[in-house]
Write a structure and sequence with these properties.
Length: 142
Amino acid sequence: MSLKIRLARGGAKKRPFYSIVVADSRSPRDGRFIEKIGTYNPLLGKTNENRVQYDADRAKHWLDKGAKPSDRVARFFSVNGLVKWEHGDNPNKGKPGAKAQEREQEKKDKEEAAKAAAAEASAAPAEEAPAGEAGAEEEKAE
């Protein structure tokens, strides 16, 4: 039986309140648990000491028996040095999808083509007006 130390949700709709529990990993999130070892109230301020409360001795006891804390609970335990927690790093998660990358590449290609066309137009000598049109302008002036 593998044990997990995780959060079990309680509280009303849009008013979360969590219990830190030791449970069998196969049991549902808010279902049967072995022991309740603390609470977490996310509605309180981050500096409030009542935000996260747990029995460190019981947590250490269950960790020694092989219980694995969830990521959020490991973060709480790392404050007291019970568990070493490191921030996860997934650089690929922030990248756009394949379609978005294709659209971005098409946009860059169009911009480069427009810049090239503008460079050609500015580099080419200015064309003189054909003689027939110049004569027509002079006749209108008279």
